[in-house]
Design goal:
136 residues; alpha+beta; two-stranded antiparallel ribbon; 38% helix; globular
Length: 136
């Protein structure tokens, strides 16, 4: 698959129509046209300037938070709660308008229990890491 960052070398389907693509240099989340329509029906299109691609540094947090229930149910991502907390934190910093639109009243979005990540460079692998089977 060709991505904005080059040819994909690996992918992980987070949920139907939500795929994390990895390249040699960068990566991010791609949303299907159906998923984009759901976003556009719900959120202000002016706040969604990168669709259908959401790069790994900051923009990945938009679809990760928005489709969090489907991602959690479908993919069983390792450390999902911590990754979701990181996504909320990134959203609040880089996309405060979307954060305000998406946050749930009365729920604190904290980084409690989050692994020590000193660099955003390795977050791609950590975020999209698929769950291990129960036998592992």
């Amino acid at each position: 698959m060709q991505t904005p960052w080059g040819k994909s070398i690996q992918s992980n389907e987070l949920a139907p129509g939500i795929i994390w693509y990895f390249t040699d240099r960068h990566g991010g989340i791609w949303l299907s046209p159906t998923r984009i329509m759901v976003l556009l029906d719900t959120l202000d299109p002016a706040l969604l300037d990168s669709w259908p691609w959401y790069e790994e540094d900051c923009d990945w947090a938009i679809p990760f938070v928005f489709f969090r229930d489907e991602i959690q149910e479908y993919n069983q991502i390792l450390y999902f709660r911590e990754k979701l907390s990181l996504a909320w934190e990134i959203l609040s910093y880089f996309h405060p308008g979307l954060y305000q639109d998406l946050k749930e009243p009365g729920i604190e979005h904290e980084l409690a229990g989050m692994p020590n990540i000193t660099s955003i460079e390795n977050v791609q692998e950590w975020i999209a890491e698929p769950a291990q089977t129960k036998d592992e």
